[in-house]
Amino acid sequence: MSFLAIKNLYKSYGTVPVLRDINIEIEEGGFLVLVGPSGCGKSTLLNTIAGLEPITSGEILINGKSVAGLHPSQRDIAMVFQSYALYPNMTVAGNIGFGMEIRGVPKAEREKAIKSVAETLQIGHLLDRKPSQLSGGQRQRVAMGRALVRDPQVFLFDEPLSNLDAKLRVDMRTEIKRLHHRLKTTIVYVTHDQIEAMTLATKIAVLKDGVLQQFGTPAEIYNSPANMFVADFMGSPAMNLLTARIDDGPSGLSVSLDRPHGEPLALPVKSVNGASSKLAAYTGQQVIFGIRPEALTDPDGADRKAHSVAEGECLIEVVEPAGSDTFAVTNLGGKEVVARLRADANIEVGQKAKLAFNLDKAVFFDPKSQLRIG
Ligand SMILES: Nc1ncnc2c1ncn2[C@@H]1O[C@H](COP(=O)(O)OP(=O)(O)OP(=O)(O)O)[C@@H](O)[C@H]1O
Ligand SMILES: [Mg+2]
Question: What membrane topology is given (predicted)?
Answer without folding.
Answer: Peripheral membrane protein
